[in-house]
Amino acid sequence: MNLAWLDAFLVYGLFFVVMIVGLALLLHLQLGLARIANFGAVGFWGLGMYAFGVLFIQVDWPFSEVWAFLISMAFGTLVAGVAGLAIGWVIADLDTDGVMVATLGFATCVWIVATTEQDLTGGALGLGGLGFPYDIGSVKANETLWLVILIAVVALILFYVSRVHKAPYGRMLISIGDNEHLARSLGKQSFRRKMWLFAGSSAAMGLLGAIFGVMERFLDTGNLGISITLAAIVALVVGGTTRVWGAVVGAAATIAVFEILIQSYIPFPQAWYGQAIPVLRQMAFGAALILVLMFRPHGILGQMRRDKLMRRTHGG
Amino acid sequence: MVDEASNTVPVDKSLDDGASSRPTIRVQNAAKSFSGRTVVDVEDLTLGTHSIEGLIGPNGAGKTTLLRMIMHAIPLDQGTVVLSSDGSGFETVLSDLSTSRMAQHGVVKTNQVITDFEQLTILDSMLLSIAQRSDESASAIYREQGLYADRADEIQWYLEQFDFEDAFGFANSAGEKKLLDIIRCLLLNPRVLLLDEPTAGLPDSIRDQLMGLIREKAAQDDMSVVVVEHDLHVIWSMCDYVHFMAEGRVVLHGEPSYIRDHETVVEQYLGSGHV
């Protein structure tokens, strides 16, 4: 297969876009269905990345690298899940403002710990030594395969999310998000359900973080700022918070346009790439968000359509 | 008990455990004040000894507050609420339970104010009601058809009886929402059903049909029903027993005819010109 068109920049751009789609899909479960306003996605994502990376690099593994890699990845996922369970327990009974502050606070804690625990994490200088668990030739081939693996993981998440919409589980989550008191009076254990949903989706965010760390080959506290959270939220809101494909459409309309199309085809002066482009990107995302909220408050895809779904599922 | 040809509601047989005695709720020394004003002060009240009981009284007597206290939607200042579920003497202290656990124990209340899920369709609402915890497990992503099939007869029966405009659509009118609220509760197969002004906002024909259904279910399933209602025709025609509340206390109990003609009730509530 001729992959000449797929340059390193495009592989990385696509990787970033697909990862944001994955995060936005998980946020969709939390925010779109159960109405948990998680503003700390980067915290769980970053915790997964760091837990994976630190364990993999700092431990003197007695067995093969592939096993060490897989165990570390499972560990990263688990740590993010346990953190999700703890934070979920804290926020399940809070109102939206409380949830936003608590999750944002958690993400800040992760960033501070990663920066200050220099012996473990390398602090602000970062920690190198991550790599792919395979070697199929060139750097480009390895990165492309890793992109394919990420796409498979995110496709699985997308499939799960679309099934959740069609399952009693999704209906229960929607009922809790829609009218929690009424859902409780019908026997739905909203506290426990929200807590476990949060734990599960946080674990998956951690896995995405670990996968991202491998692509970067480097643990960098610079990734733990607000921009990943913002990218995922903007993608989801622009696409449609309550829709299955909202994350995909939104990421395509925002992150993909900026990361791939604009940066590839608009001849920005070379000097801009250091400082100006990231700022321009934030401005463009902000503008997209404002425009969508003004003209299409439910996102490009609009509101959830349970009536259509029910007709399709049970309509004969 | 399934009888598709008649107006009898199909019953989920899996939940029919054959118990025959009626569940009761006993409220003891329960008090609630808001800003120093005592709204409810009930010494000892047992609800559910008759299949359908009415709870009446003037505005502000504390009827709705009492129901909400039983449901633990309002925390009690003091006192206990205990459910005796059958003749076995097994008791559950409801005032220790969360709202969701209460529904799992079969104690369910309809809402006085119209309450609905904005994002869920009529069919969604009904399926939400019948879904058990195992149906709603995060891994049960292929459970939908099975869930529907489990109680399809019952769901179809409700949809046909009450002639919803579009089961796949949303409940639009206030009447539909109110009706759906009650149907959601009935689908939970409650042991104790508290109805808080169930007929407000319902067209007369639907009201009569619904009350007939509740009477039937109360007789058939050993369900205890407590009705708070301002439409006294509903109370006199439906209830076997009536509690009269005034100023937070239950001051009288008795058969409808006794309450109806009692001097205190006439004085405080009905007025001398009542029929």
Task: Give Rg of chain A in angstroms.
Answer: 20 Å
Helix content of chain A: over 70%
Task: Name the structural class of chain B.
Answer: alpha/beta
**Main beta sheet strand tally, sense and closure of chain A:** 2 strands, antiparallel
Q: Give me the side-by-side strand order of the main sheet of chain A.
A: 1-2
State mean pLDDT of chain B (0 to 100 scale): 86
At CATH level 3, the topology of chain A is: ABC transporter involved in vitamin B12 uptake, BtuC
Strand/helix succession of chain A: HHHHHEHHHHEHHHH
- CATH class category of chain A: Mainly Alpha
The greatest interface between two protein chains, and residues involved on each side, is: A-B, 38 and 45 residues
Residue fraction in strands of chain B:
15-25%
CATH architectural group of chain A: Orthogonal Bundle
Number of strands of chain B: 10
Shape of chain B: globular
Radius of gyration of chain B: 19 Å
CATH superfamily of the largest domain in chain B: P-loop containing nucleotide triphosphate hydrolases
Biggest sheet overview of chain B: 6 strands, mixed
What structural category arises from helix and sheet content of chain A? mainly alpha
What is the distance, rounded to the nearest whole angstrom, between the alpha carbons of the first and last residues of chain A? 45 Å
- The proportion of residues forming helix of chain B, as a percent range, comes to 25-40%
Supply the CATH architecture of the largest domain in chain B: 3-Layer(aba) Sandwich
What does it look like?
Helix content of chain A is 74%, strand content 1%. Chain A is built from 13 helices and two strands; from the N terminus they run αααααβααααβαααα. In chain A, helix 1 crosses helix 7. The longest helix of chain A has 28 residues. The model of chain A has no long low-confidence stretch (mean pLDDT 93). Chain B has a six-stranded mixed β-sheet, sandwiched between helices. In chain B, helix 3 runs parallel beside helix 6. At the A-B interface, helix 6, helix 7, helix 8, helix 9 and helix 13 of A face helix 2, helix 3 and helix 4 of B.
